[in-house]
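User: Hey, my collaborator sent me this sequence without any context and asked if I could get a structure. I don't really work with proteins. Can you help?
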Amino acid sequence: MGKEKRKRTRVPVGFEAAVSLGEEKIDVQTLNISLNGILCTTDSRFLSGEKCLVTLTLNPTVKVIFEGKILRVTPSETAIAFSAMNEESFIHLKKIVEYNYGDADKIDRELADPLFS
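Assistant: No problem. I've predicted the 3D structure and written it out in structure-token form, which is a compact way to encode the shape of the chain:
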């Protein structure tokens, strides 16, 4: 088995989300999330390389928004990398990953390491 290339911890989650492609909004369910992106259910309208906007619904009054790019599309799932987010969205994202992983210190250590090297 090859060496794991991922530099960020992924955690299983099941949030409702929407992926916007221009004016078109497509509802999805998240499968897992990291500080880099999400894996979600798929849709035939998703195309690899396409820019998108991901809106994650944490509860009826809290939604966080991420700019992203579709990395991979399969018949059952789609991987989206985050490319930009505001500070409030990052804080929510970090807390989601920390809470679901259970080791906030490890997540903080990941943030100290450069993503690309």
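In plain terms: The chain has a mean pLDDT of 87. You can pass these tokens on to your collaborator as they are.
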